[in-house]
Amino acid sequence: MTNIEIAGIKRRKATDSIFRYIVYGLTFTCLAVVFIILFYIFEKGITCIDWNMFSKLPKPVGESGGGVLNAIVGSLMIVSVAALIAIPLGVAVGVYLAEKRGKLAADRVSIAIDVLQGVPSIVIGMVVYVWMVKPLGENGFSSLSGSIALAIMMLPPVVKNTEETLVLIPTTIKEAALGLGASEFRMTMKILLPTGIGGIFTGCMLGIARIAGEVAPLLFTAFGNPYLNFNILKPVSTLPHIIFNYGTSPYDDWQRIAWGSSVILVSLILILNFIVKFFESKWKVQF
Amino acid sequence: MEGTILRTENLCAFFGNNQILKNINIDIPEKKVTAFMGPSGCGKTTFLRCINRMHELTPDAHVTGKVRLHYQDVYQMDAMTLRRRVGMVFQRPNPFPTMSIKENVIAGFTLNRIKLKAKEKEEIIQDALSKVALWEEVKDKLDKKATSLSGGQQQRLCLARTVAMKPEVILLDEPTSALDPLSTAKIEDLLYELKGNYTIVIVTHNMQQAARISDVTAFFYLGELLEFDETKKVFTNPKNEKTQNYITGRFG
Amino acid sequence: MEHLKSELDTLRWELSQMFSLVLSQVKKSQEVFIVNNVTLVKEISATEKLVNAKELQIDSRCETVLALFTPVAIDLRFVLSALKINVNLERIADIADGVARMVSHSKVQFDKELMEKVEAKKAFDMVLEMFSCLIESFEKEDTLLARDIFAKDAIVDSITTGSIDITEAYFKTGDSLSQAIPLISIMKMIERMGDHLKNIAEEIIFYSEARVLKHGGKSSEA
After folding, report:
1. N or C: which end of chain B has fewer CB within 10 A?
2. Average pLDDT, chain C
3. How many domains are there within chain C?
């Protein structure tokens, strides 16, 4: 080899190494940040986790031994109702976008969904406030309006994931179904959706993980409630509410509860993510 | 013509303003194997897909002229009913990935909301899989996912799925081009046996395959039907010079 | 590959039929020549049409197999051999017909003594023996039997070559010149039948062993 070639190879190898180390370094930094946050939360809040947290209602200032049962129930309620609204709607829109890709109308809907994804959550809360809460006056605040706000926020991830999953399904499978005499609807329900269930499920779980931690829109809609409430037409409290309200208060007891709630919330989201990863590989479909 | 099951009259096919097929007039004989051959882009696959109206699924596609199945105009029929009578096997094996082997065989019934009793189901599954020489290989694993089979087996499963619906015509679009030679030979033998009960129309870019298995052969070139005759005549003494050039490998 | 297999089986069966047909023609012509049974002449002539039709049928089938199945290896060699065997068999049948017609046209009765001197019966019998041996070789694909033909053909050649001198010598002492020409012609025809049979043997060895024994490279060992 000539000297030029040797020099060239050395330089390329060096560039390669430098680039590799940069990538490793940045990755490590990212991971380190995540772990530090999680570690800090758990360190602060794990001592606050006891049976009381899960079974008792918040106590007035000064008294110890309160819990966040109302917030846990509230979170579950508001997120489930939001999911019930957003999932069928989101999947349907995702199917539409996947089937009509390239058509003008579908393109416009796609842009609309993208825009919706970018709308700040507090603005969505404001809009739902004006639509649903204000007209009903005093009785406007409710779990249902909170669910609607969260459902609007959950739509984009569900739609996008559904669309992307369905688009990856080879046309030949759809043609096989149509070639047997199936109607488009039957083909969608019996073949398309079952084949894409993995990706659709992922989209839903990611959507839920996203809204579970939102509080801004709920400030205008669900409002908060110190009591246990199962009625969706009444205000309700959620874990993020507790974290926001109690975390910014000057009382030690309440701050403790806020940390405890953070631990619960973060754990829930971590569990959701692990469920997604687990089912993603289990439901992976070979074409 | 006697013994004709499918006839086209001045069939033209378009993708937008692009004309793919020019005035195709052909009589396809019943219970025989008809092969369509020709160089890439000659329109043979498009023509096949016009027969069971799969061509319509492509945006901007439209068709003029007539296609008749037993004298009925195919474009006046309900497309779904038509596709039950005219089945199709595609180039790449495409069993439904979420379904097991036996579910795939009766998928046609499931997708058409035709209810079957358990005994009927079993009979249909065994009959269809036997017809495609797959029964012995899979009878002990009918509940396994269809994608666990090899490529050749998957393609035979797709054939079983079509045959289970007892169609009058089976269309095959280059069914062995994605398979190894042994699987190809198995499928060719199958088609030779099936023609006793079904009309078979096969598109192939492999002329030797057309020669081996078909009774009549059609040669397509640039969207036109240049020759359509008994396979033996086409391969020993074709009437059209372009057919001869194609077969002898002088072009295409 | 069932389709190809069944076509080849049919071809083999048709060749067997051709073998039988031509053998029966040769047997009849032997009777016409050796024992002067001229009633068989018309039979031979009528059957000749069947033989020609069969030749065309076999040719057509070979064409079909080559065009549609592009056979290779032993299948290809078989089809190529079948074509040549077909031609040779047809020639043999032609010659048998020729023998019969020569006897019938010349209206001659060959002297028994002359016939014995030229060993006519022995030559014809040897040809028939070669023919039967060949049919068995074809049915069983037995190339050892096919190789036996070469020695037998040598015997036929030597008999027929000798027959010219013997006939000449006979007619110096005898007086029936009218027998000489037909007799010599027929002996030559017998020799040609033997040659065609030898060609067929070479074809059988070609397709079974892929060895070409034509024009030298001959082996008559077992």
Report:
1. N
2. 88
3. 1
